[in-house]
Amino acid sequence: MSNILIIKTSPRTGGNSDALADEFARGAAEAGHNVETVSLARKAIGFCRGCLACQDTHRCVMRDDADAIGQQIHDADVVVWATPVYYYSVSGQMKTMIDRSNPVYGTDYKFRDVYLLASAAEDEPTTADGAVTALKGWVACFERSRLAGVVFAGGVNERGDIAGHPSLAKAYEAGRSVGR
Q: Origin, by domain of life (predicted)?
């Protein structure tokens, strides 16, 4: 049984990437995993100042919601990032949280598997490539981790457009398959 942290990064709660996250969570919970979900939508998370004090203290000098989320990332066995694709990359909220997770770098973090769940209005197969690249850059800094899976839902823009989309079943199955 794994401890799974799902980070919803959309500023629009209840949107399409949140639906992917919810299906991943449902599949993982049904498979017997402990699932915790955090939404960044109403969190106070400032931009990284680049001071690098966290490399010595493993804590950020800024005291906001990113500090606790970083600790959750550190303690999770599996980290799942859910994002809308904005301008062919991750949401600004996701990028800011990635930067603010810097205190985890150089620690004895637990996570090995990292997943990306992404939704976008455009439905070309390459639409999420920039988001994948952004997350791969973060994963590469954590040598014991790997990008274990990507689920992309294209052609969904308005809240609820994802209903019936095949990506929901893929997200559910990815959650059920964690650790296999």
A: Bacteria
18: CB partners within 8 A, 6+ apart: 8, 10, 12, 39, 82
74's tokens:
């550190």
> Would you say the pTM of this structure is higher than 0.85?
yes
Cβ burial of 164 (10 Å; 0-12, 13-18, 19+) is exposed
Q: Residue 158 and residue 147: Cα distance in Å, rounded?
A: 28
Rounded Cα distance between 180 and 174, Å, is 10
- What is the rounded (10 degree) CA torsion for 75, 77, 83, 89? 90
User: 66 and 40 in contact (C-beta within 8 Å)?
Assistant: no
Alpha helix positions (H), 13-165: 16-30, 54-57, 65-75, 92-100, 129-140
Assigned fold of 3-176: Rossmann fold (3.40.50)
pLDDT (tens digit, 9 = 90+) per residue, 93-103? Answer: 999 999 999 99
